[in-house]
Amino acid sequence: MQIVSAEEVGFSTQRLGRVNKMAQGYVDQGKLAGAITLLARGGKTFHHESYGSADLESGAPMQPDSLIRIYSMTKPITSVALMMLYEEGLFHLDDPVSIYIPEIGEMKVYAGGNGSGLRLEEPDTPVTIRHLLTHTAGLVYGDRDDSPVGDLYRKAKLRPPDGTLKCMAEKLADLPLRSQPGTKWQYSIATDVVGYLVEVLSGRPFDEYLSERIFQPLGMYDTGFYVPEEKLDRLTTVYGPSEDGITPVDPRTLERFRRPHAFFSGGGGLVSTAEDYLRFANMLLGGGSSNGAEILGRKTVELMTSNHLADHLMPYALSEGQASESRGCGFGLGFKVILDIAEHGTIGSEGNYSWGGAASTIFWVDPREELVAIFMTQFMPSRQYPLRREFQVAAYQAMVS
Q1: Where are the beta strands (DSSP E) in 42-141?
Q2: pLDDT at residue 331 in the model
Q3: What is the pLDDT, as a whole number, of residue 321?
Q4: Residue 318: what pLDDT?
């Protein structure tokens, strides 16, 4: 990757040192094993640094091409995949999902009670494709919802590594929605359903569709649902907090990333690199095109990165009881979108769109400033430290023109 000087694209090399200080500080304090920071403006990369270790036990350093489990940074890619089919005229945003996935039409809505006393009611309106893309379908993540509905989702084991997207949809038919469609923003498995919708509409396995229609055209050759054997030495270790600092996350929970498997999670299943994700983000910044690859049309990107939430659905929180990081933000078709920079409370731009992953990764695209920013690390839970806001401040403060 060619790196230009910061001054060539309106940044200060001296002030960019604060990005390094922020990331290296977390490593030096033992809060993170390692990290990667990457910044590009107008398609020109001017900062790409790596810090600390990919694996503390072996001492392997974090490298610019280290392989990262991006978890929910998979969601924007899945959303793009579906909207490519939208452009082909295969569906409308407000189509009921049940037209294409009948199982979704069988779901009732939770109305109270628990166990044998669980009360259900009919949905007031069908779950639509727009609901899936905006997390307003009434679905949940079992591990993020402490209601009786969350219990049912956990017991159903909707996303086992050797399951399939079709099996997930069939299990959903027996589960209730947490709320009436369109009435609440709830972070959920909706984007996994979007991945299955891509399979149904395209007639292709989801992993093959992504590879053929997005990854290969953009040159994202290190991105996929598992790491092949010849690249395993580049796969970084995921850490979590411990009494003495940090410790590796239970390797059994990460095994699916180390071998071929059947469940292609559109909500959180991809492994990638900072450089590969930059190619994806630059495509978005370029209005759907990058380096000769035309993935989406410009107006589709504009639609996806506009706010689709009504006022009463904002602000929103990723988990029940968790303080929201969405002040001043709406939500598009797969992205958080800054609507009011003063209410957001962190320097940046209105129109900036972004999303992060469970292992504390984040990316954003700022169309106004033609800026792409990526922070990669491997630490769970992502809410442990204010990494994302600190990275945003450190990056923007270095912009001088």
Answers
A1: 44-55, 60-61, 68-69, 109-112, 119-121
A2: 98
A3: 47
A4: 78
- Please list the residues that pair with 235 across neighbouring strands: 67
3 state DSSP class of 37: strand
Element (H, E) at 285: helix 274-285
Total number of residues shown for the chain: 401
d(CA 206, CA 199): 5
Residue 195: which residues within 8 A CB-CB, separation 6 or more? 78, 81, 165, 206, 264, 265, 266, 267
Can you read off the two tokens belonging to residue 392? 């945003």
307 close to 331: Cβ distance less than 8 angstroms? yes
Q: Which DSSP category does 142 fall into? A: G
Decide if pLDDT at 255 tops 70. Answer: yes
| Cα gap 339→72, rounded to integer Å | 22
Amino acid symbol at 314? M
Residue 310, pLDDT > 60, answer yes
The pLDDT tens digits of the residues spanning 145-181 come to: 889 999 999 999 999 888 999 999 999 999 999 999 9
SS3 content of the chain, % helix, strand, coil (to 5): 35, 20, 45
Q: How far apart are CA 253 and CA 23, in angstroms?
A: 26
Buried b (16+ CB within 10 A) or exposed e, 232-254: eebbbbbbeeeeeebebbeeeeb
Q: Is the pLDDT of residue 98 over 70?
A: yes
Question: Would you call 136 helix, strand, or coil by DSSP?
Answer: coil
pLDDT of residue 256: 84
Task: Give strand pairing partners of 372.
Answer: 40, 365
208 vs 211: CA distance, rounded Å: 5
